[in-house]
Automatic annotation (TrEMBL):
Residues of the whole record sequence present: 247 to 615 of 615
Oligomer status and interactors: Homodimer.
Protein name per its UniProtKB record: Glutamine--fructose-6-phosphate aminotransferase [isomerizing]
Organism: Streptomyces solicavernae
Record localization: Cytoplasm
Upper lineage: Bacteria, Bacillati, Actinomycetota, Actinomycetes, Kitasatosporales
Segments forming domain SIS: 42-181, 214-359
Annotated function: Catalyzes the first step in hexosamine metabolism, converting fructose-6P into glucosamine-6P using glutamine as a nitrogen source.
Length: 369
């Protein structure tokens, strides 16, 4: 069943280019526009949406955090992202024009299910982004956009995460398309790039040997820190979550701009710090700021592991280890940058003798609140 791979997790990491392509299949028409009739929410209603609220747990929550950047940029609709387990207990503001998006691989996560029930009771429409046909969350939602990752067996989510991102981008781009925003040209360009993205994920997978060797060399450490900005911040959180759950190590993700507000005190000689560097194009201000952050942590003894786009030469002098990813539009970068972090966590956990498909204390779907 593992198709020659040592674990389901490795198999599922390798399946990502196909999972991403399958999730796009049939959703981009010949003219390069999105067609999401399957959503079953009329365009007229989508034009009326005045707030988007995303609810999810764990890795799916990280997909939601990334979706916020895309939704607000391409649609100008305010978007909140909330841990499903917190949502209904704080009396959230929900109305008929609020679109609630529930993201869940399994479709059975109790926290997410309770959050969407709460939203529907308040009169909001719920769109599920889900990987499991006919599961409870899509059955109880008003609409569903399925991710087509195929069955995910390993407890740690990998291919489902990438397809959740694709589905979130599709929702954001589609909302932009039906509402018509000033980003029309950009939306078309991004749809074209998205159509090619599976090939780029494959390119990343082909260059992972140095990442594996690096992970093995860090097997005896007890802390790894992750930094990112903009959409790279949730990627940092996801990298840290993977390492916690698989390697049982202390791992934390931070927004790089927060370093000076506290976390920099954690930096001491030899601490590995993984930095997700935003594209030097587009958001170049952020790029330059993060290069300064890399210098700052390195000056305090950190061992810097830098994930940066091909052609980004500014990071080279400060990277103890440099992981290259293909250049992509700024908002799509998480589809590239997450992959090395999955490989890193999987290899490090294996080097520590852990069972990567079945980490201790965890279950694949959490059906209790
Ligand atoms: C982490 C992981 C979990 C799940 C979370 C939500 O690798 O797998 O954090 O992402 O339990 O699960 P779903 O998406 O099934 O609702």
């Amino acid at each position: 069943e593992k198709g020659g791979y040592a674990s389901f997790m490795l198999k599922e990491i390798a399946e990502q280019p196909k999972a991403v392509a399958d999730t796009l299949l049939g959703r981009i028409d010949a003219s390069g526009s999105l067609s999401l009739d399957e959503l079953r929410i009329p365009d007229a209603e989508l034009r009326e949406v005045d707030k988007v609220v995303i609810v999810a747990c764990g890795t799916a929550f990280h997909a939601g955090l990334i979706a916020k950047y895309a939704i607000e940029h391409w649609t100008r609709i305010p978007c909140e992202v909330e841990l499903a387990s917190e949502f209904r207990y704080r009396d959230p503001i929900l109305a008929a024009r609020t679109l609630v998006v529930a993201v869940s691989q399994s479709g059975e996560t109790m926290d997410t299910l309770m959050a969407l029930r709460h939203a529907r009771e308040q009169g909001s429409k719920v769109l599920a982004i889900c990987n499991t046909n006919g599961s409870t969350i899509p059955r109880e939602s008003d609409a569903v956009l399925y991710t087509h990752a195929g069955p995910e067996v390993a407890v740690a989510s990998t291919k489902a995460f990438l397809t959740q991102l694709v589905a979130c981008y599709l929702v954001a781009l589609y909302l932009g398309q039906v509402r018509g925003t000033k980003w029309g040209d950009e939306i078309h360009a991004v749809i074209r790039e998205l159509a090619q993205i599976g090939g780029q994920v494959e390119q990343v997978l082909q260059t992972m040997e140095p990442v594996r060797a690096l992970a093995r060399s860090l097997a005896d450490r007890d802390t790894v820190l992750f930094l990112g900005r903009h959409v790279g911040y949730p990627v940092a959180l996801e990298g840290a979550l993977k390492l916690k759950e698989l390697a049982y190590m202390h791992a934390e993700g931070f927004a790089a701009g927060e370093l000076k507000h506290g976390p920099i005190a954690l930096i001491e000689e030899g601490v590995p710090v993984v930095v997700v560097v935003p594209s030097p194009r587009g958001r170049s201000v952020l790029h330059d700021k993060i290069v300064s952050n890399i210098q700052e942590v390195r000056a305090r003894g950190a061992r810097t592991i830098v994930i940066a786009e091909e052609g980004d030469e500014a990071v080279v002098p400060y990277a103890d280890h440099l992981i290259r990813i293909p250049a992509t539009p700024v908002l799509l970068q998480p589809l590239m940058a997450t992959v090395p972090l999955q490989v890193f966590a999987c290899e490090l956990a294996t080097a520590r003798g852990n069972e990567v498909d079945q980490p201790r204390n965890l279950a694949k779907s959490v059906t209790v609140e």
